[in-house]
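Example 9 (inverse folding). The structure is encoded as follows.
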């Protein structure tokens, strides 16, 4: 099948590549000429496990092409995927300018029937706006062409994106007619062989399903963080509580880890956007607002512990392990590391940071500054630091050489925002170990 994808970010690039991998003919379009040039040279601009190999294979096979030529892109595909960003606007609502710009571009260049598939995360009612924009541009052109608009939100997780796309838990398809549902069913058939994972519904429900999923996951995290803060004050250990409640199958173990706040390009903006959508229809979404507020507060918790331990932070050097918002990605959008670093800098401390994949991204965001040292290894970050703070649970941080760590650090102090270690074991080795919602062992 002929497929065009607008946007070659985390979602667009993975979507295009995986469609090519099962034999489709895919053209990916982006306005970022630099990105397209890199992709055409065989470079993958993001870190996503397994993606580079797949891009390479499909590019060489001629099934996956990259271009800035939107006209050629529109001419190519029966399916026109919109996978561009929907960042938060000033009021927290999703900014639809990129989505609607693509809709306009499709309408400008189309000359036959197209299925316009919205893969970006967009508020309920966006498909109507996309349809209206296409109709408006077609009318201006004096063209009378048929098209359908589909909501097909994406559920891939950064860090496991290829696997999630190839073996999805569900494929949500929102349409307003059975013919389009059948086209999407055929398109997704290669990813739907083991059992039927395609769930079809009306467009508005599909749009809301994506926000509901992210809001539920964010709620689980904020709930556990609230409980962790309580445990901190009550002398209980949240890790025991987590295991205790997870054993109830109605609760389950997944996604109930306490930590130093959720980040990334999705949860923060999607929770805000859903709350904003609620207020637009006159509903005060109190729970969603609290999920967001608890998370913002949680991003301050590690800094508060550091400040409480040291008092004045001016001139202190803090080693930071982890910059990405979660392991297995280089994405630092809304990462907890950013709030922590910024708070440390405001307090006059310097940061020596290491992340297995996000060093380039950190340098792109912060450039050169005297109070940030981007280190080439986890060990180097520790050299001469007053303490170690951990914000991303990369597996290489899970079992470090604690004796070596003690030698490198000026003081044996760890602030662990992801509860990676056993407090008793660390106390026995002479560390001051602060975690989230766990009693401090002196
Ligand atoms: P991204 O910022 O990584 O990529 C967006 C890309 O779109 C950029 O390369 C940008 O240059 C390009 N673009 C912008 N305007 C364009 C235009 N007019 N024509 C062609 N390309 C254009 O974004 P992302 O993380 O891939 O997210 C895309 C959408 O998918 C968002 O709505 C997001 O909420 C949603 N989503 C993201 C994830 C995730 O894990 N990142 C998961 C599910 C859904």
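The amino acid assigned to each position is listed next.
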């Amino acid at each position: 099948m002929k497929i065009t994808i607008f946007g070659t970010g985390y979602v667009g690039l993975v979507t295009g590549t995986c469609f090519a991998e099962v034999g489709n003919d895919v053209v990916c379009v982006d306005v970022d000429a630099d990105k397209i040039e890199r992709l055409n040279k065989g470079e993958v601009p993001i870190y996503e496990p397994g993606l580079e190999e797949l891009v390479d294979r499909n590019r060489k096979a001629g099934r996956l092409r990259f271009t800035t030529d939107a006209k050629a892109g529109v001419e190519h595909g029966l399916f026109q995927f919109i996978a561009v960003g929907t960042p938060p606007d000033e009021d927290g609502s999703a900014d639809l300018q990129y989505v609607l710009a693509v809709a306009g571009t499709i309408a400008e260049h189309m000359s036959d029937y197209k299925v316009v598939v919205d893969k970006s995360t967009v508020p309920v009612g966006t498909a109507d706006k996309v349809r209206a924009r296409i109709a408006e541009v077609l009318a201006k052109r004096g063209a009378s062409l048929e098209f359908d608009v589909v909501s097909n939100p994406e559920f891939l997780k950064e860090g496991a994106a290829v696997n999630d796309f190839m073996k999805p838990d569900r494929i949500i398809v929102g349409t307003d007619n059975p013919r389009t549902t059948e086209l999407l069913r055929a398109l997704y058939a290669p990813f739907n062989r083991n059992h039927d994972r395609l769930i079809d519904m009306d467009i508005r429900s599909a749009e809301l399903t994506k926000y509901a999923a992210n809001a539920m996951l964010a709620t689980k995290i904020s709930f556990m963080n609230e409980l962790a803060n309580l445990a901190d004050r009550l002398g209980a250990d949240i890790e025991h509580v987590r295991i205790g409640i997870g054993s109830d199958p109605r609760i389950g173990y997944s996604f109930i880890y306490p930590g130093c706040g959720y980040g990334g390009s999705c949860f923060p903006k999607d929770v805000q956007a859903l709350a904003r959508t609620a207020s637009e229809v006159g509903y005060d979404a109190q729970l969603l607002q609290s999920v967001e507020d608890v998370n913002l507060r949680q991003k301050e918790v590690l800094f508060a512990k550091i400040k409480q331990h040291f008092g004045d932070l001016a001139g202190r050097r803090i080693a930071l392990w982890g910059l990405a918002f979660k392991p297995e990605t280089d994405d630092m959008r809304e990462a907890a590391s950013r709030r922590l670093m910024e708070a440390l800098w405001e307090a006059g401390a310097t940061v020596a940071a290491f992340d297995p994949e996000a060093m380039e991204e950190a340098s792109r965001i912060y450039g050169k500054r005297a109070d940030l040292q981007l280190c080439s290894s986890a060990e180097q970050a520790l050299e001469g630091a007053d303490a170690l703070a951990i914000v991303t649970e990369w597996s290489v941080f899970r079992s470090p050489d604690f004796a070596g760590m003690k030698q490198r650090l000026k003081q044996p102090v760890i602030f662990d925002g992801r509860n990676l270690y056993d407090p008793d074991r660390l106390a026995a080795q002479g560390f001051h170990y602060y975690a989230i919602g766990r009693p401090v062992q002196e």
